[in-house]
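re: the backbone from monday

yeah here it is again, tokenized this time
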């Protein structure tokens, strides 16, 4: 017994071995979580792809900036609607998970669809709080008024918000399935769509295959429609119809996946056993 105890005395192992042991522990955590590995490689890659495509577009059309000086500011503001909307709903869910409050919520008469409705409302509130000050500030700093888009702005805003909600449902479903090791997806998923959302450049800049991918997603239609309005073209009802239809399709699919993941998590007791 004394030999066994002495084996664990802190003075036995060298500092290098102790450091290596802790590094090995963290490596096992990292290796065992594909979302963490994905997150490490994701950000440098996505930045390179987006700015590379912007460079290609500006190289091929040097007059683009002078034709629509506000297009980049408008794109940034509308992109923030999508990002803030998705993050707003996802963070409300994560706060419940971190505080281990999911079990308390669902021992009450609260139903899953009622809870999702509350996430949607909070997402809208958080988005408005985040985006409206920036939009007003752009008027004074850059003499750019995104509200001058009028009714098309309302259509763009609504579609981006709906898109952010079904993205949030997919993220919540993933976290319910894989645990809090996947919480980084709350910050990653929306940017996964960024290169093919045509935020700062037209869809035509993308390689042909990715053009089809882009047109299969609602954000690309929203940003293409926005650029058309800013360049003085008539409002594209085709892009609006495509965005609405795709949002309806993906929303139904995401809702189904969420309900399946939620029921599975409740059956496994994962609503009670996850937290910080």
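seq for it, each position gets an aa:
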């Amino acid at each position: 017994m004394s030999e066994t105890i002495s084996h664990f005395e802190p003075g036995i192992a060298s500092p290098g071995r102790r450091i290596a042991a802790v590094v090995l522990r963290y490596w096992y955590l990292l290796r065992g979580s594909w979302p963490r590995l994905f997150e490490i490689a994701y950000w440098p890659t996505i930045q390179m792809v987006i700015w590379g495509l912007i460079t290609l577009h500006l190289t091929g059309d040097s007059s683009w900036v002078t034709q629509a000086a506000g297009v980049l500011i408008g794109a940034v503001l509308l992109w923030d609607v999508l990002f803030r909307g998705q993050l707003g709903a996802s963070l409300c869910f994560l706060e419940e998970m971190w505080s281990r409050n999911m079990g308390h919520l669902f021992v009450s008469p609260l139903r899953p669809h009622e809870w999702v409705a509350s996430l949607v409302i909070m997402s809208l509130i958080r988005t408005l709080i985040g985006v409206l000050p920036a939009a007003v500030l752009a008027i004074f700093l850059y003499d750019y008024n995104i509200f001058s888009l009028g009714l098309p702005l309302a259509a763009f805003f609504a579609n981006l918000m709906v898109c952010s909600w079904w993205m949030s449902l997919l993220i919540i479903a993933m976290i319910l399935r894989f645990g809090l090791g996947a919480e980084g997806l709350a910050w990653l998923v929306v940017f996964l769509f960024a290169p093919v959302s045509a935020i700062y450049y037209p869809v035509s800049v993308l390689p042909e295959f990715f053009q089809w991918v882009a047109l299969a997603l609602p954000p690309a239609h929203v940003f293409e429609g926005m650029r058309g309005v800013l360049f003085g073209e008539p409002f594209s009802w085709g892009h609006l119809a495509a965005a609405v239809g795709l949002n309806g399709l993906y929303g139904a699919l995401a809702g189904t996946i969420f309900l399946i993941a939620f029921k599975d998590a409740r059956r496994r007791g994962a609503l009670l056993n996850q937290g910080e």
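DSSP finds 13 helices and no strands in the chain. Residues 1-8 have pLDDT under 50 and may be disordered.
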